[in-house]
Amino acid sequence: MHWIEIWNRLRIRSIGTSTEFLTLKVLTNLELLLLPLPTQQQIADILSAVDRKIEAEESKKKALEELFKTLLNNLMTGKIRVKGMVTGGEQYTAESTN
């Protein structure tokens, strides 16, 4: 059953405006088809892998943000200097002042 069909069935069975959709009576009478357990496990495995990838990307983003802050601080305090600063897509070189 498609989620739109489930949504429509819930709307039809809803009672009043303050208890729209999820009443105990609606939930106990609702028929849901479940996927076979191996399929559910495959979906769970895929979602777990996606979660791990998201966590890894968030960790990488945090590390890059920290690196940016450190480099910006070092540049602004004069700990490093950019020499040969030319616009137009040329690569800059940095040197330490220590």
Q: Tell me the fraction of residues in β-strands, as a range.
A: 5-15%
User: SSE order, as H and E?
Assistant: HHHEE
Mean pLDDT: 81
Mass-distribution shape? elongated
Secondary-structure-based class equals mainly alpha
- Give the radius of gyration: 28 Å
Tell me about the biggest sheet? 2 strands, antiparallel
Distinct helical segment count:
3
Q: What report would you give on this structure?
A:
The chain is mainly alpha-helical. It folds into two domains: 1-33, no CATH class; 36-98, no CATH class. Helix content is 58%, strand content 8%. It contains three helices and two strands, in the order αααββ. The chain has a two-stranded antiparallel ribbon with strand order 1-2. The longest helix is centred in the middle third of the chain and has 40 residues, at 37-76. It is elongated and about 75 Å long. It starts with a helix and ends with a strand. 0% of the residues are buried.
Observed structural traits:
single chain; 98 residues; mainly alpha; two-stranded antiparallel ribbon; 2 strands; 58% helix
Topology overview:
Layout: H1 3-13, H2 24-29, H3 37-76, E1 80-83, E2 93-96
Condensed summary:
With 98 residues, this protein is mainly alpha-helical.
